[in-house]
């Protein structure tokens, strides 16, 4: 793989690690918010009105911001029992095809999620709760997550193509060092 591509892949991976850690902080925030809600509701007899809404937004952020990190850390479910038994070259071609399909599908999802976010900005959409939260802010996690995920998959695709050209065996799990 060329030096420029390798540098871009490393940059994307660093950003994906950052969003992965942001997702972990989101999980921590959900736990803290839930504990505060329990104390407020059952001890102080005064429930918070924002707990469910903010917890939902945090869950969306955790899910989408964690996609690229999860891909990098081999966290997504992979079914490899067939390709493990194949000729390494054939397995490499299947890996390239599946990554190309993944990049295309996630790329389309990223494109439409950016359009959706643009509509939220244009229309100044708000939640229909008492908080009237501007939805553009929690929705930002969706296109950012999809875009980073597509970029991580594209980096893995470039690596898989390079491995195939060099005659190296396919990496069935997709997380490799550059």
Structural write-up:
The chain is mainly α and 178 residues long. Helix content is 72%, strand content 0%. The protein is built from 6 helices and no strands. Helix 4 (88-123) packs antiparallel against helix 6 (141-166). The radius of gyration is 20 Å and the shape is elongated. Residues 174-178 have low confidence and may be disordered.
Taking the sheet with the most strands, its summary is: none
* Oligomeric assembly: single chain
* CA-CA gap between termini: 9 Å
**Class from helix and strand fractions:** mainly alpha
Provide keyphrases for this structure.
single chain; 178 residues; 6 helices
Short description:
By secondary structure, this protein is mainly α. Helices cover 72% and strands 0% of the residues.
């Amino acid at each position: 793989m060329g030096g420029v591509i390798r540098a871009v892949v490393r940059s994307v991976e660093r950003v994906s690690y950052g969003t992965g850690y942001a997702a972990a902080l989101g999980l921590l925030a959900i736990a803290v918010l839930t504990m505060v809600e329990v104390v407020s509701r059952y001890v102080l007899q005064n429930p918070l009105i924002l707990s469910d809404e903010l917890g939902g937004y945090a869950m969306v952020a955790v899910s989408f911001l964690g996609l690229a990190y999860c891909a990098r850390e081999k966290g997504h479910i992979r079914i490899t029992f067939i390709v493990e038994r194949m000729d390494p070259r054939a397995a490499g071609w299947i890996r390239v095809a599946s990554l190309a399909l993944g990049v295309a599908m996630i790329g389309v999802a990223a494109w439409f999620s950016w359009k959706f976010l643009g509509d939220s900005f244009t229309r100044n959409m708000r939640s229909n709760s008492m908080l009237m939260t501007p939805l553009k802010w929690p929705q930002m996690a969706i296109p950012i997550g999809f875009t980073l995920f597509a970029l991580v998959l594209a980096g893995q695709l470039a690596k898989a193509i390079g491995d195939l050209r060099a005659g190296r065996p396919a990496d069935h799990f997709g997380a490799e060092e550059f």
